[in-house]
Write a structure and sequence with these properties.
Elements (H helix, E strand, L loop, with lengths): L20 H8 L3 E5 L2 E4 L1 H20 L3 E2 L5 E3 L1 H6 L1 H5 L4 E4 L5 E4 L4 H8 L11 E10 L14 E11 L2 H21 L4 E5 L10 E7 L5 E6 L5 E3 L4 H4 L2 H6 L2 H6 L12 E16 L1 H5 L3 E3 L5 E3 L1 E8 H11 L1 E2 L2 E2 L10 E5 L5 H16 L4 E4 L5 H11 L3 E5 L7 E6 L5 E5 L3 H8 L1
Parallel strand pairs: 3-7, 19-20, 19-21
Antiparallel strand pairs: 1-2, 4-6, 5-6, 7-8, 8-16, 9-10, 10-13, 11-12, 11-13, 13-16, 14-15, 17-18, 21-22, 22-23
Helix pairs in contact: 1-11, 2-6, 2-11
The chain binds one RNA strand of 78 nucleotides through strand 8, strand 13, strand 16, helix 11 and helix 13.
RNA sequence: CGGGGUGUAGCUCAGUAUGGUUAGAGUACUUGGUUUGGGACCAAGGGGCCGAAGGUUCGAGUCCUUUCACCCCGACCA
């Protein structure tokens, strides 16, 4: 993409209501803009990042044997009355009426719809297990949306549901999904922890959360410094009466706090702040029994499905990447999430040699299917650098005054290092870096 | 949903206690010129139903009433 053709409205100042780095930088960088309380538009850069995350989620789930579906976003309220969740979810569910005065709900989650979909279509143990998911808009009418994409009312979530003929098989799938989620978050380039969680209102026995470690995380978790044990403090009796106190502490304060008890492996435990980006539950027969979704087992007996449910906050991940990867100048995208891997910066657009080299390199990288931005704008060097740092391209090729000596520079956004390199080697070097 | 706050240019904000020229600044935008390695400088421009509706008044951005929106603290939450 040429910068001169792109729609990337960057800004020097952030809206006054943005407090978190991800909120500020995503708006300043022209990734998103706010449409209303908890409602955001994704502009081209934001849309690219969102799609990249969505694609990685889909690829890993499909490899693990899941099938993607798409459920209707508007659902009749009767669907929710049958499970009794109409009451439980309360005002979180946005209700609307059609022209016939029939009441509908914008889906906040889809346990009921998915059970209804499978009910009477899968009727034998021979057709199990089954794992269906969708990556679709959700709407929860939060009392207080905040923190930009981290807590919107409308958001993109991947929600998956699995159906099994036995608890054992459901647990097997649960463990498979834990591993799959680890692959997803690892591919995204995130530092994360899997922790034991409180299963909350959705119910069920086993429940694990996936937290991206970041100063601004809303949850406090404890993690072992040695093994992979971790837990949300909400689940630990020792902390139950101190949750509010601990949640209020800053990241720095928490690091100083010692956890009295040791991990079962014998090592020390530490407090961390986390952003919840994934949650997996063992549901059992809670919904299948309530909605009478049954199958026939080997003995011809009718039983409700054993179920599990799996969520990933896709739009929240866009913000979580930045909460974990930013500096005072802006975004630092991971390689898997960067909207463009390389930015070719022509320092002086009036310099024909700079322009020619920029165009040539741009074309060459595009031919090699590298996601590349050509900054062919008329702004000055400083403006372009600030802009590149704000947007967070992993690499910027600076074509500038050193070109007279046959050199350009490659700027690494994460390390902030500038490396001079001969023009003849810049293509190979970029291909090696990405 | 309780408590508090804010709505004035695309964005950040003055101006409102005490009503009174043509409503301001910075930034962004347009044009011309000078610049060209860290969000440049000079000059000239365009851009506002002062959130909305009603009211008080000779006169309302400013006072009164109603309403809507957004934000913050709590409670709740992927």
């Amino acid at each position: 993409m040429r910068r001169s053709r792109a729609f990337i409205p960057t800004a020097k100042e952030a809206p006054s209501d943005a407090t978190l780095p991800s909120h500020k930088f995503l708006i300043r960088g022209g990734f998103i803009n706010q449409q209303g309380a908890g409602l955001y538009n994704f502009m081209p850069l934001g849309k690219i990042v969102l799609e990249k995350i969505r694609t990685i989620v889909k690829e890993e789930l499909d490899l693990a044997g899941c099938s993607e579906v798409q459920l209707s976003f508007v659902t009749p309220i009767s669907l929710w009355e049958r499970s009794g969740r109409c009451e439980a979810m309360g005002k979180e569910m946005l209700r609307i009426k059609d022209r016939h005065e029939n009441e509908f709900v914008l889906s906040p989650t889809n346990e009921e719809a998915m059970v209804e979909l499978v009910k009477n279509r899968v009727t034998s143990y021979k057709d199990l297990p089954l794992n269906l998911y969708q990556i679709n808009t959700k709407f929860r009418d939060e009392a207080r949306p905040r923190y930009g994409l981290l807590r919107g009312r409308e958001f993109l979530m991947k929600d998956g549901y699995s159906f099994h003929s036995s608890i054992e098989d459901m647990v097997r799938e649960f463990n498979l999904m834990e591993e799959t989620y680890k692959k997803i978050f690892t591919r995204l380039g995130l530092d994360f922890r899997v922790v034991a969680a409180d299963s909350g209102a959705i119910g069920g026995d086993g429940s694990k959360e996936f937290h991206v470690l970041a100063d601004s995380g809303e949850d406090t978790i404890i993690v072992c410094e040695s093994c992979d044990y971790g837990a949300n403090i909400e689940t630990i009796d020792e902390f139950k009466d101190k949750i509010d106190e601990l949640n209020e502490k800053s990241y720095e304060d928490l690091k100083e706090l010692k956890v009295a008890q040791k991990c079962s492996c014998g090592a020390n435990l530490h407090f961390k702040k986390g952003i919840e980006v994934g949650h997996i539950f063992q549901l059992g027969t809670k919904y299948s029994a309530a909605l009478e979704a049954n199958f026939s087992d080997e003995n011809g007996r009718s039983k409700p499905f054993e179920m599990a449910t799996f969520g990933i906050g896709v739009s929240r991940l866009v913000a979580a990447v930045i909460e974990q990867n930013h500096d005072e100048n802006g975004c630092i995208w991971t390689k898997a999430t960067a909207p463009y891997m390389v930015n070719i910066m022509i320092s002086n657009i009036k310099d024909v040699n700079q322009v020619n080299l920029g165009e040539e390199l741009y074309e060459k990288l595009q031919d090699s299917h590298v996601e590349v931005m050509l900054d062919d704008g008329k702004e000055r060097f400083g403006f372009k650098m600030k802009d590149a740092e704000l947007i967070g391209f992993p690499y910027t090729v600076i074509i500038g005054k050193e070109l007279e000596g046959g050199l350009v520079q490659i700027y690494d956004r994460r390390t902030k290092e500038n490396t001079a390199i001969n023009v003849s080697q810049v293509y190979d070097k970029i291909m090696e870096l990405i």
